[in-house]
Description:
Blueprint: H1 4-30, E1 35-37, H2 38-45, H3 49-57, E2 64-66, E3 69-73, H4 74-89
Antiparallel strand pairs: 1-3, 2-3
Amino acid sequence: xxxxxxYESLVRKISECSRHLENILNHTLCDKTDWLDNAQVQAxxxxxxxxxxxxxxxxxxxxxxxxxxxxxPATEVCRLLNQSYKANVG
Length: 90
């Protein structure tokens, strides 16, 4: 058991961290009009190439193929992250 003040302090700090992470995601990725390749999206989402293919095939993430290279708009990756985040929090 921990004291109520310590618990409330921990909850407040976790909320602050959550808000900070949301701000970072929104400002660094979501405001960009950049295109990301497969390797970059894999690193951001922590997903395998096969999972990305499934996301594309099911229409859950937008993409374009240019010169046989799959590219994703940063806004699509951000949308997917926010969707996952809201699903896990809510």
